[in-house]
Specification:
seven-stranded mixed beta sheet; 9 strands; single chain; alpha/beta; 24% strand
Length: 225
């Protein structure tokens, strides 16, 4: 997920594809499985991701192009329980294509920031927010090294898939909890989760991209250490 970017000289020599134009042209806009209130641009077999990867030396794994279990559960929970976000300033950390951020905006959040390190994710987020008629502020970059943001609630979907990333995310979230910011996590019970500090709020059967059957995914509140 985190990678070293190419040098400026390489960028000068390569004409990079425009992420917004590519996604708009090649990713159909379809309802999210189990969340018909939201439609997203989603990768299809004909979307040409392999071609895009060959054209762009900065291209990384296109996680933003698919539906993931944690985000699906977290978005469904927010829409089912709008009181959890209504009137609050919200950050969607590692937003991907913006599913959770869009759900928060639809549920009545006072303001939504969506952060990701990938320029394609940011482009998809902006397109998807516009298609769903909501306002979301995009923030490109890794926020986990910084200070707590000026928000009331942080939403985290699918960021506990690797121990090193999980450790860095948890350290950031601990700083946020100390600053009085609440944290909700969506995840399908991956091993790096800090389970001893999680309060289970809900479980859902979700249709993650690439899986024929539904799988269990959960929403948790993170408690202080």
């Amino acid at each position: 997920m985190f990678r070293r970017k190419p040098s400026f000289s390489i960028r000068q020599q390569v004409s990079l594809p425009d992420p917004t134009a590519f996604i708009r042209a090649n990713f159909p806009l379809v309802p999210v499985p189990g969340i018909p209130e939201i439609t997203l641009h989603k990768a299809a077999p004909s979307s040409g991701l392999a071609t895009l990867a060959a054209q762009d030396p900065d291209f990384a794994s296109p996680y933003w192009a698919y539906h993931w279990a944690g985000g699906l559960a977290l978005a469904r929970f927010i829409l089912d329980h709008p009181d959890r976000v209504a009137g609050l300033r919200v950050l969607d950390l590692g937003c991907g294509a913006g599913l959770v951020a869009i759900a928060a905006a639809k549920a009545g959040a006072a303001g939504v920031i969506a952060a990701d390190i990938d320029r394609y994710a940011i482009a998809a987020l902006r397109l998807n927010a516009a298609c769903n008629g909501v306002s979301v502020t995009a923030a490109e970059g890794d926020l986990t090294f910084g200070d707590p943001p000026p928000v009331d609630l942080i939403l985290v979907g699918d960021l506990f898939y690797a121990p090193d990333l999980a450790g860095r995310v948890t350290a950031f979230l601990d700083r946020c909890l100390t600053a009085g910011i609440a944290v909700l996590i969506g995840d399908p019970w991956r091993a790096p989760l800090p389970t001893a500090r999680l309060t289970l709020l809900a479980e859902y059967k979700v249709a993650e991209t690439g899986h024929a059957a539904t799988k269990a995914s959960a929403v948790f509140a993170l408690m202080p250490a």
